[in-house]
Amino acid sequence: MAVTLADVAARAGVSAATVSRVLNGNYPVAGSTRERVLRAVDDLDYVVNGHARALAAATSDLVGVLVNDVADPFFGLIASAVQGEISGGADQPSGLPAGAGKLAVVCNTGGSPEAELNYLTLLERQRAAGVVLTGGAVEGTGHSTAVAGRLARLAASGTRIVLCGRPPVPELADLPGAAADSVMTVAFDNRGGAQRLTEHLLALGHRTIGYVAGPAERSTTRHRLEGHRAALAEAGLAGSPAELDRLTVHGYYDRSSGYDAALELLRREPGLTAVVAANDTVALGVCAALRERGLRIPEDISVAGFDDLPFSVDAAPALTTVRIPLQEAGARAGRLVMGRQAPPPGGLATVRTELMVRASTAAPRKGA
Amino acid sequence: MAVTLADVAARAGVSAATVSRVLNGNYPVAGSTRERVLRAVDDLDYVVNGHARALAAATSDLVGVLVNDVADPFFGLIASAVQGEISGGADQPSGLPAGAGKLAVVCNTGGSPEAELNYLTLLERQRAAGVVLTGGAVEGTGHSTAVAGRLARLAASGTRIVLCGRPPVPELADLPGAAADSVMTVAFDNRGGAQRLTEHLLALGHRTIGYVAGPAERSTTRHRLEGHRAALAEAGLAGSPAELDRLTVHGYYDRSSGYDAALELLRREPGLTAVVAANDTVALGVCAALRERGLRIPEDISVAGFDDLPFSVDAAPALTTVRIPLQEAGARAGRLVMGRQAPPPGGLATVRTELMVRASTAAPRKGA
DNA sequence: GCGGTGGGGGAATGCGCTTTCTGCCGCCCA
DNA sequence: TGGGCGGCAGAAAGCGCATTCCCCCACCGC
Q1: CATH number for the domain harbouring residue B41
Q2: Within an 8 Å CB–CB cutoff, is residue A310 touching chain B?
Q3: Chain A interface, mutation test: which of B59, B118, B314, most A Cβ atoms within 10 Å?
Q4: Do the chains contact at A87 and B80, CB–CB below 8 Å?
Q5: pTM for the full predicted model
Q6: What residue ranges of chain B have pLDDT lower than 50?
Q7: CATH code assigned at B244
Q8: Cis amide prior to B298 (ω within 30 degrees)
Q9: What's the number of domains chain B is made of?
Q10: What sections of the sequence does the record tag as coiled-coil (chains A, B) (predicted)?
């Protein structure tokens, strides 16, 4: 049915080996022969069988990209950037001949640890050339150990691993031989960003700041919360753990969680003058809830987000937030996973975050 | 290095064939034998080689999803939904045994026709089980013919094809044999939605309506524009082609295009009372430009978008737009491409769009 | 003119798995 | 008791390609 190498060889009057060599260009072939082969390939509309090639050459042109949810711009931006890098450099996905580009397999884990593990297995099955893990790690349970195990096996079999926006995995630091070098991390400075954000609020005069955190078991949640509390502590506002927890509500990284959390915070502390959200999406939910309660932003209450997603600047009002250069981070992860860029020292690179002060934060009202 | 079927067979004291049968469960194997094999698999941490399997069985667990840009929520939402369906049903991506789920290969074409073609070749190379093409088609050039050709070949080789948010390809209607049934379309009613949107504006009393269209050669752009003009014509406001074109500016589907286009429209027609944008993202850019010009929305000028992306409700003001059930459409496309749902009659399903009237549109000022 | 040399091409092997095609064994029925 | 049959398992033939090894044939130097 399908056209095979042998068909092309027959038509060009050469052996299959020669066709293979022409296609891969890794062996000298006379110009005239090459031309005949190429013409035959064209005539027959031949397309190599990737599986056969992968099997014979023990290589793969797949790179897995694990994300919590592609529909979330945070991950979409990263995935897009990774994809741009791995599919044949800066320009278009390479044509037939070159083919240095690889295919991105985007895996939606939905934030589920089991799904993450399953996808890792699927990728191992496909002998993926590389894997990019994005989003915060799930901590606490045995999950991180399980992931570490899978990653170790992947790394051992030559798969390059890049953690993007996720802390390094200690278990992977001391892998035998070259495997250790194939695990790299592009981390975000969540802690520092969160700290600067809260410092900004404190500088404006806020003293009663609510915090809408993400799911408790995620590293991203923890780091941002730590940064927030570090700022509080430095300002001498640490308070008791109970007090801190009273002004902290956990939820998911989505709009409705922000909405619910804002209501809850208001119930716990009507004197709130500012709310920091886990991310911009959550912040939008917070704003919606506050507005429905008749509060004006930022006159009555300030709101801040995180990530600086594209829509944040168009929100009402424009959101004060912390910018993470997601596309740059994703691009870098893509280059690393492709082996096109030297690994950073220690295999760890941390991308800076930047405070973006906009219209959703202001000094609290005098009365407050 | 890697553990193979033979290793497992040896450890279990059976032949490779038996191991294969246990793993695939497509042949009777005695319970005790199965158990021994399973234990060996577990002991050895065996993971099948997907390429070898694909080669031998002439099947693949890859499904390509072509999008213009994953970072764009429009495509992210669709991709996410498709992905959810193909990776093992409603729940998590199937574990090791079942394995009915497939992997989604998300391909960012960046809207480039060549990239689209290249990806199609790459997917053919991987003998993809299915391909979902999203986003409007590029019309006019020879591109659609080229795409039709590639799709025809894919379909002929058993790959299921689903066009999502893209008009049917006429050349593919009369493929020989079963191939015709493997091409399906989930279209969006862009035309109808656009028409209802403009009718809404007309009903409010607007008579001078600017239109910020997408790239001229895309089918989506054309359909929305047609709907818009159909509404105008029905209201007896058709005007001359020149007049229509004067109030139409083309750009990309991004924020900055909307920004620039709004300025241009204002220059051409200061008396504008409403602007319809190609999509919500563009509408945001339009709003930003208008606001900078000191115009209030909707008091001075109304703005409408399209798609009803998640952020639209949180924009300032909340955007009037046309909702496309993207996740449902994507999920349907996913089911179709997996063969889990019977193809719609004629292979064509059209998803309805719904007018969402919100705060960005209102009656024009009396003076205008 | 002869052995040497090296560029170019073919034959054959194997990658790891699926899948006939056989074949063995124990059981039932005549 | 013997022929058959059903339930299982093994042997082996590929799937389509990359690659190693080998060979052939100019062409060169002596």
Answers
A1: 1.10.260.40
A2: yes
A3: B314
A4: no
A5: 0.94
A6: 90-98, 368
A7: 3.40.50.2300
A8: yes
A9: 3
A10: none
